[in-house]
From TrEMBL:
This is ER membrane protein complex subunit 2. Residues 1-20, 75-103 are annotated as: Disordered. It comes from the Eukaryota. Residues 11-20 have a biased composition (Basic and acidic residues).
């Protein structure tokens, strides 16, 4: 017998909401808590919990990616080796996944590029130009028309060439 509340439709209802609707509310709550959380470890866990419930949630992927990349600023010095940095690898993966889901021109990705530039500037300030170059490169790959990212990428490449006494390589 049909009955009220979706009985007989295959959707279990509780308090007027389907399981899917409850999951969406829980994911939103987890994201809200993560945004307000000050402790980096707890913030990380809240984003991961949201993604366990909804792997395709673009906000969770985008925000976890940026959160992981911000953690590069907390790494002990000297930590300027992009190749061995797990946070960098996962952060890039999360941002690329969110970008693919959101599509070209989405303002969330444009805003993420601004945040990436800020992270890159901070890394430069900590004398971590190789990591900064990776961050700027990610921003340029996400949005090739993001002028600030392109300019920063150019500047940090020039700085690295001067630093390594390879200005001829930069000019070529």
């Amino acid at each position: 017998t049909g009955g009220a509340g979706g009985a007989g439709t295959g959707e279990a209802r509780h308090g007027g909401l389907t399981q899917e609707e409850r999951d969406v509310k829980v994911v939103r709550l987890l994201l809200s808590q993560a945004r307000a959380e000050k402790d980096p470890g707890a913030k990380d866990q809240l984003y991961r919990d949201a993604l366990r419930m909804d792997k395709s949630n673009t906000d969770a992927n985008l925000e976890l990616g940026l959160h992981l990349l911000r953690q590069l600023l907390r790494a002990p010095r000297p930590a300027d080796d992009p190749g061995s940095n797990a946070a960098l690898k996962e952060g890039k993966k999360r941002l690329k996944k969110a970008d693919k889901a959101l599509g070209p021109g989405d303002p969330k990705v444009w805003q993420a590029c601004h945040q990436l530039v800020n992270i890159g500037h901070s890394l430069e300030g900590y004398d971590r130009p190789l990591l900064a170059k990776e961050i700027y490169g990610l921003s340029v790959r996400l949005r090739p028309d993001h002028g600030n990212s392109v300019g920063c990428m150019y500047k940090v490449r020039e700085w690295l060439c001067e630093w390594e006494n390879r200005t001829a390589a930069f000019e070529g």
